[in-house]
Amino acid sequence: MKYAIIIPDGAADEPQEALGGQTPLEAARTPNMDRVASLGVVARACHTPTALPAGSEIGNLSLLGYNPFENFTGRAPMEAAAQGIELGPNDWAIRCNLVTIEDQVMRDFTADHISTDEGTQLLAAAQEAIADDPKFRGALQFTPGVSYRNLLIWRGDKLPPPFSMSDTRTRAPHDVTDQSVLAEHPRGPGSDVLAELMAESERVFRDHPVNVARRKVGKRPATNVWLWGQGQAPRLSPFAQQYGPRGAMITAVDLLRGIAALVGWDRIEVAGATGYLDTDYAAKGRAAVDALAKYDIVSVHVEAPDEASHEGRCDAKVTAIEQVDRHVVGPLLAALESQGDWRLMISPDHPTFLRTKVHTHGNVPVAMAGTGIAADEFTTYGDTNAANSKLAFDEGWQTMGWFIGKSEKPFTNL
Are residues 51 and 110 in the same domain? Predict the structure, then answer.
């Protein structure tokens, strides 16, 4: 059996007046997604329970079949795994965004999609001027990632970390877009250290040559670092041990690379995959088709719909969904149908509302088709059909077991 999973990140949404009362998934031209729906079932799943953050770190962990209440230890440790950073039992990883804050308002959680080279220069300056202070005893290391997505590593063997898994509270910057940050700074044990680092970075970045150059060409500066998503290393059981198939992940986002590494999947890097609206959708689709020859299960994650929502761009979200349909779903479905037994699943990890520009708790639409999956009454894929489906996974992590064929249908009677 060959399996494929397509994750259009944040594609789930609410009806839009600009789209005549349809959601972006319903307004988009998606003949291939609709064909998956007509061949199989449309369901709904909740990958972001209200007791946990409504983020991709929770949603994708659940989507891949891991109970987040048992396995989630923070977002940053997953991204550390993507970079091959080993965390000891006393180490912590902290997500470090480069952001633009103006008049105490989060204007841009990406610092105008700052380049990786620019971000690396800024973090080097923060390391020298802040983290290398003798009082931290060499425990802190600002670690560049991709663009605005970076890490701060705290080595506990050099300085005992002040954080608490249950009581240290931080807020994702993309959840406060265009809002005041005054009440959103870290709270609880260790929050004073995080707040100090964030404040000091503003001083270091203010007149840094990178920001001087960005202002000259009309780009937003990276005003400071924003620290959040802290945690310690998780211990996830291998996917092959839990579910059977050997897997591979195609993504441009470190979070998904990290989850893949932690569950024992290979990671396939695709040239032109950016994690943004300009990503090379076709290259991702080709890579996924090629990967079917080597792996039992191939997952393609596309960040673009989520990025469009964070920017409040309805047309861009519809276009991104259409690109996923044409260049990823279409080729993968054709490739699967040309061989033996197969199954394909399409599912966002969480809703991201255009209205609020933030990740949201709630159900996402799921389409599953292939060998052994009997077709239901739905012939199109979308939010409304999913809401009306009798097939519901209130604990979203259980969806994977049903998709793989290891559990029965958890029907919900409407």
Answer: no
